[in-house]
Amino acid sequence: MAGFDPFELADLEVLRMHFYLGYNNSCGELNDYWREFEFNRSAELRIAIASVKLFTDGGLCNAPAVSWEHPGTPIAAELQVSGTGDLYVTVAEVAAAVADVESRDGLTVIHAIGDAAILVALDGLEAGLAGGPNVNGHRIDHNVVVAPDLYSRYGEIGITPVVWGNFSSCRELDGRGWAAIMPADKLPWLRATPDLMAANPGLRVSFHSDVPSGWLDMFEQLWGIVTLRQREEETGRICEAPSWLEGHGVPVSTALEMMTVNAAHAMDLERDIGSIEVGKIADVIVISQNPLDQAGDELLDNSVEATLIDGAVVYCSPGNERWCDEVGSSDLGGELPATEETEVQGEAVPIVSVRASRVDPNFAIERVADGVSDSGGWVSGSGAPQWIELDLGAEVDVERLVLWVDQDPGGFTDHRVLGGLEPDPTDELARLSGDTDWGQRLEVEIGRTVRYLRVETVASPSWVAWLEILVISAE
User: Fold this and answer.
1) Where are the domains of the chain?
2) pLDDT by residue (tens digit) across 50-102?
3) 220-223 long-range CB contacts below 8 Å, 24 or more apart?
4) Could you point out which of 6, 259, 340, 404 has its C-alpha 20 to 30 Å from the C-alpha of 214?
5) What's CA 464's distance to the chain center, in Å?
6) Of 475, 435, 192, 223, whose CA–CA distance to 333 is shortest?
7) Is 275 helix (H, G, I), strand (E, B) or coil?
8) How many Å apart are CA 83 and CA 71, to the nearest integer?
9) 231: alpha, beta or left, given left = phi > 0 and alpha = psi -120 to 50?
10) Would you give the distance in Å from CA 368 to the centre of its chain?
């Protein structure tokens, strides 16, 4: 994770970054380092190792694997494609990889561009799942050249296809695209998203940008899915989609689903993000126009007015400061207010027992609830995510929670306070997000009757620890 620590990236500490480690690399060479990591696809995590990616054919390195012989033309030589491309794995190897990742509760993201690679990916997934359901959500990314006889296989196996938003129409116009290396009768196999959907009613088809290979601008991506046109970055010219892609775009409403709820589904995060529903994480953008009221190139005439993370505004574009005023800005990335070091007011509730996700054997966890903030407390001995759970012994009307920070170095932290009447509570009662440092005293309102309280640290630049935690009764 070196170089991706969100606490070392100025102004980026609110991003959610889920990484997929290479089962092999883009040139087909196997890796083993991913086995050192545990997978976690919780959307609550700011940074996580979600799972692994397996390359079945070339693209960035070498050429896509296809079922025909590439022509021996100067253009093909210049594009470095020859023969049937570069297939990196067999069906048996894909099946073994899927079973291996499945046994670790991971999902396999399979890179497959050419139709030969897609066939191997589908056969390997079917064999790896051994006829069982695709519970973990193994998926195939890119799906550029799909032979028509493979369409129904996605739905039969339960595989989510993920497709590009942008299409390189300018390369086609310049004679340097797929038409230069594909037989003419197979060109309609490219980007046949509507046909893939029609063959699999109810199948969730998702989008990906593939940045930096694709466009970063999401409005251009939306426009690209719908129209298959391209705006050349260097010149600004707009290139029409080739005639053999006629009918391969999708309606705006379908494209929006592909970019939101279906994308969350493809990442196994649909329960937490992807749509605006009660109980989901409120990561939302406010845009200047409704895409459903736009068509064609009008889709490019849109912009982000505000960005909300966890329901709080973290960005307002120039001229749209009203969103910051109306919705309220966030503590994310700012300093959490420390309570003045006066005596804690209210009656402290006795804590019967304490348990945690992890405890450093050099520290006694009981000290976190001994009522003395400088006696040393709970130290997990590891980074986020970690949690500590308090048992109050009986149902108590809790007014607030008081916590003393044990953290070095200081920086951005994100904590959830969960509570309930049973162990392992899941109801989120409060959220503390912002910059904290060692010795800081935080107080958070609870206002609920609970027996169990859990403080779950989702992000922290140091080992997760607390010097002291007090529970204050409402009575």
Assistant:
1) 6-274, 282-330, 353-473
2) 999 999 999 889 999 999 998 878 888 887 888 999 999 999 999 999 999 99
3) 220/165, 220/166, 220/300, 221/165, 221/166, 221/259, 222/165, 222/252, 222/255, 222/256, 222/259, 222/291, 222/299, 223/297, 223/299, 223/300
4) 6
5) 23
6) 435
7) coil
8) 8
9) beta
10) 34
Quick check: 363 and 385 in contact, CB under 8 A? Answer: no
Residue-wise pLDDT tens digits, 2-56 = 444 434 444 455 677 889 999 999 999 999 999 999 899 988 787 889 999 999 9
Beta strand extents in 271-408 (DSSP E only): 284-287, 304-309, 312-316, 353-356, 378-379, 386-405
Residue 153: left if φ>0, alpha if ψ -120 to 50, beta else—which one? Answer: alpha
**Three-state DSSP state, 70:** coil
| Identical fold, 6-274 and 353-473 | no
Question: Is the CATH number 3.20.20.140 carried by domain 6-274?
Answer: yes
Using the structure block, give the residue that is written with the tokens 């298959």: 228
Parallel, antiparallel, or unpaired: how do β-strands 47-55 and 17-22 relate?
parallel
pTM given for the model: 0.71
Bridging pattern class, strands 206-208 and 139-142: unpaired
Q: Please count the other Cβ atoms lying within 10 Å of the Cβ belonging to residue 333.
A: 17
Residue position matching structure tokens 């505000």: 306
Distances in Å between the Cα of 171 and the Cα atoms of 142, 167, 179 are: 18, 9, 10
